[in-house]
Amino acid sequence: MLSTLAAYHYCGEPADEPQNWRLDAVEGETILVADDDAAILQMLALMLEDAGYNVVLASDGEEALGMVEAYHPDLVLLDYMMPVIDGSTACQRLKGGENTCNLPVVLMSADRQVARKAVEAKADDYLLKPFSMEDMLGCVQSRLRLAGDRRRDD
């Protein structure tokens, strides 16, 4: 996955021009990324920060749940297979929580069954690894927009 992410060029522009990666990040939006692979975690953090998001990192599901309580992120990206508490269980706990049930959660996995697993975990969306930066940022942006629309409707 790392080589796919590192080599990806948005709109055919060189990767050393991060302004081309920006979508419509709202200043102050925070994304929690949980993955047990440090290289993937850092690559996702760089991409999201370059797109204008604040980023909080966790290396397992238990740490991710604690970070949600501490930082109140606007969206969570969870790897499916992590130690201590896996992404599926962490997602189910977030979706079952009174204060976190509407928090957008995107499940990430290299397993081709990720769509089914995301539905079972009650995730809002999923990303199949390896994914492009454009796909990841597009998913984040659309899920944040939908969550914002729901808050305005309430």
Structural notes for this entry:
The chain has about 150 residues and is of the alpha/beta class. The chain has six helices and five strands, in the order αβαβαβαβαβα. The chain has a single domain, classed as Rossmann fold. The chain has a five-stranded parallel beta sheet, sandwiched between helices. It is globular, with a radius of gyration of 15 Å. The N terminus is likely disordered.
Helix/strand class: alpha/beta
Major sheet: arrangement of strands: 2-1-3-4-5
CATH architecture: 3-Layer(aba) Sandwich
Report the end-to-end length measured between terminal Cα atoms: 39 Å
Overall mean pLDDT score?
Answer: 84
Number of strands: 5
Structural domain tally: 1
**Assembly state of the chains shown:** single chain
Our Rg estimate from Cα atoms comes to 15 Å
Note the total helix count: 6
Indicate the overall shape.
Answer: globular
CATH homolog superfamily = Response regulator
Order of helices and strands: HEHEHEHEHEH
CATH class: Alpha Beta
Which keywords apply here?
single chain; 154 residues; alpha/beta; Rossmann fold; five-stranded parallel sheet; 6 helices; 16% strand
